[in-house]
Design a protein that fits this description.
With 190 residues, the protein is an alpha/beta fold. The chain is 45% helix and 12% strand. It starts with 7 loop residues before the first helix and ends with a helix. The structure holds uracil.
């Protein structure tokens, strides 16, 4: 149990009906999160895009396919890990989430992390990294590093898969190297 929610199901039910921020009226559905609720490895992205808004599942579009393939490269499947976002509703036109939206959605993410209690939290891109590490340092500096997090867990920031798709070859090599760091951190944590 976390401070605000009696159970993971109670958390999900409340999030799915959320009207706490200006994204609620324009979403098709809340994209709560997916995967193993007892995972050692959790990914946190930025926010749903059009495909996720339509299907209700995070990272199912082009960026999601790349994420799924990088997860496969370290010997895991989507069912082994948990995948969530900083904001759970699609910002219109895929704009960046606004601070008021991030603040309103934060208790859901914090409670997800609290219930799942992952050993490794991978932040995908700047929004998740800055939020969870409470830093202004950007992803290009932090990517691939292990950052101390709460309860003995670590945060490993990696490039957002959309940025990897945009930037191509060198960025893909960096992402692959960062996933090796993730695999090692997981092995050392068990
Ligand atoms: N980008 C994100 O940050 N999250 C998703 O769920 C999809 C794309």
């Amino acid at each position: 149990m976390t401070a605000e929610f009696a159970s993971f199901d109670a958390l999900r039910i409340e999030a799915l009906a959320c009207t706490r921020c200006p994204l609620a009226p324009t979403r098709t559905q809340v994209v709560f999160g997916v995967g193993n609720e007892h995972a050692d490895l959790m990914f946190v992205g930025e926010g749903p895009g059009a495909d996720e808004d339509r299907t209700g599942e995070p990272f199912v579009g082009r960026a999601g396919k790349l994420l799924t393939s990088l997860i496969g490269d370290i010997g895991l499947t989507r069912a082994d890990v948990y995948i969530a976002n900083v904001v759970k509703c699609r910002p219109p036109g895929n704009r960046d989430p606004h601070p008021v939206e991030i603040d309103a959605c934060r208790p859901y993410l914090e409670a997800q992390i609290g219930f799942i209690a992952p050993k490794v939290v991978v932040t995908l891109g700047n929004f998740a990294t800055k939020l969870l590490l409470d830093t202004k340092v950007g992803i290009t500096k932090l990517r691939g590093s292990r950052q101390p997090f709460r309860d003995g867990a670590v945060v490993i920031p990696v490039l957002h898969p959309s940025a990897v798709l945009r930037n191509g070859g060198a960025a893909l090599a960096q992402a692959r190297a960062d996933f090796v760091v993730i695999r090692r951190a997981l092995a050392e944590s068990s």
